[in-house]
Amino acid sequence: MKLWNILLTTTILGGVAGATLSGFASGFDDVSVGGRVKQGVAFGYSDLTDGMLKIAQANYIVELDTSWKPSKNIAVTGNFWLRGDWCDSWCGDLMGSGIQNPNSPNAAQQYGYHINRKGGGRDDPFGNTVDHQNRYLDDFEDEMIREFAIKFTDDYNRFALKIGKFVRGWGQSDGIRLLDVLHAQDLRMKGVLGDSDEIRIPNWMAALDLNFDEMGIAKPFEWIGMTKPGLEMIFMPETHHDKFVINNPTPGDVTSGGLYGFPFPYLIDPVSGKGIPYFAANLHDVTPREFSVTDATLAARFKFQALHGEGTLNAYYGWQELPIVKMRDSTLFVGSDKHDPNQALLKLPLSQQLLETLVHAPGIGYLDAMRLTTGGLLGTLGQLLGPAGINAYGCSTGILPPLCSVTTNFDLDYKYRKKLVGATFTRDMVELAFGPKDVAPVFRMEASYEFDKPFNRYRVETNVGSEVYGTNALISSVDNSVAFRDQISVMVGFDYFLWLPFWKNQESSIFTSFQLFNIITKDSKDLMFQSPYAAFGSKVHPVQTYASFLWWKALDDGRLYLEGLAAYDFQNEGFAYRQRVDFNYFGDHVRPRLELIHYEGKTEQGLFGLYDNADAIEFSLTYQF
User: Organism's domain of life (predicted)?
Assistant: First the structure.
């Protein structure tokens, strides 16, 4: 734990201790303790499970929630979780995808990869690929403390100061985040369709809320039509990035995220359509200092009422949640075509510049040699002889397939600042009330402008003068592979409590919420949507459009609760749907739930394409106390 982290924790504990003494004096009259225990079992039905229903996830959560208000000016809150997934022991055999299989037609197919079982054999050459990293998410500070904070308010409600570890949510949008950027997301358990309060990653921070009315400084804002003005200021010395796992079968860097692990990228040459075999990757996170006062995140939100609605103006200066991929050095394994250092006869280091030359050199490089091979006898001979770039190190015998492979080190670099401004506005449209109950829709708008957002390039010029694109663009220098663009995002939405005219005995309304998103990227040509996924045209569109629809309805006096969430990606033709059914028939403590999560998307194109194999039906049981 860093020094400042220790000091901050000590400050909080000191406040808690002081409040504790007051609590002893008052007999703990204002203490509350609650929590829940939840266990789920999800049955997958996708390529990962061979299209059959197999146990594919077994998430659990144990939560303890406490609050204490020893006086009207002090509130102490605590929320602690233990989460994980028993899948490595409970699940069926989940078969993911690994590196390109040179024995498949044109090497365009991938080796299999047993995500949670001991593999082996022709379709899974990597042996034991079991990874237990998701069984217990038990890092106490980073994963178990969800909230541990103390809040001070003054007698006249002029200000409120909250210090500790907690979460603040911004924005108006559901599912797709535009202004809800204060906290990174934990995508390991449920992906992007998880509950927002469960996937936000808490931070050690301080939040100061100022009420301009009570402070006596609201008049200047009221003169221009802004009533009830207030300001929220955030100081966040702790930094997190999005947490996810890429299913990586490479020996020496085996990782598995289970059902919601991102797939190992296809390595496809877009010129010939052939796979690029004998290449794998080791991934290394490069992050800002986890705790730093000088490199802290700063944010502010001005809140007000105007035009019969509520609005905010927002500013954020922090860090990117997703990485930029940067190629480093590589290792050539002579004697192993499957990247196994224990089988290699010789391990030769390759610099970034040298590998870039060997791969891209016109006529003699790996890519050109691979493209010259054809089907039939010539194709077989081409595989036997191997690419010229690798043969330069004596990898081919001329009789047997090349017993060589290259593992490249890539940095996942999160050390880029995020600079963003934005606004929200919400208003009850009483002028447009309609329907059997004359209900007014609620208009919602959210917009953001991000400066100098970093992207990997989809098309680059290499150090040998050739121009390459797609997967091949990742084998290039950092100077050529990273670009910065401004990005504008706009969401317009409407909420409506629906009463159906033909449902005479409808006991309560159906809540509906429709949202339309446009994300505009300036000079977007030849930028990757999210590296390293580039093989199948995952480029940034000049205008990216999404639509989402949320609905929920309580039936049988609230004992049966239905909720659905749908999202559609127009440019990439991706679709996602989540359906929940809650059964509240077993008293106040037992809460069964049935949940369906379904994704459809083109391979590696857009967000839903990455989750294409994450389809599941989950039954969970929660005990609340």
Answer: Bacteria
Task: Supply the range of the domain harboring residue 544.
Answer: 3-323+414-617
Most distant CA pair in the chain, distance = 89
How far is it, in rounded angstroms, from Cα 211 to Cα 12? 24
The helix (H) or strand (E) run that includes residue 90 is helix 87-90
In whole angstroms, what is the distance from residue 19 CA to residue 30 CA? 11
CATH number, domain containing residue 189: 2.40.160
Binned at pLDDT 50, 70 and 90, residue 119 comes out as low
Beta carbons within 10 angstroms of residue 219's beta carbon: 10
User: Cα angle vertex 138, ends 134, 142, to 5°?
Assistant: 105
* Residue 171 DSSP one-character state: -
Q: CB of 517 within 8 A of CB of 546?
A: yes
The terminus-to-terminus CA distance of the chain in angstroms comes to 33
- Return the residue matching tokens 């224990």: 342
- Give the closest residue to 419 by CA, choosing from 331, 467, 485: 485
Same domain, 343 and 483: no
The answer to whether residue 172 is domain-embedded is: yes
pTM: 0.89
Question: How many Å apart are CA 77 and CA 83, to the nearest integer?
Answer: 20
pLDDT computed for residue 311 by the predictor: 97
Does 623 map to a domain? no
**Domains contained in the chain, number:** 2
Please give the distance of CA 61 from its chain centroid, rounded to a whole number.
Answer: 19
> What is the pLDDT at residue 292?
96
- On average, the pLDDT of the chain sits at 87
pLDDT tens-place string over residues 595-619: 999 999 988 888 899 899 999 999 9
Cross-strand bridge partners of residue 291 = 238
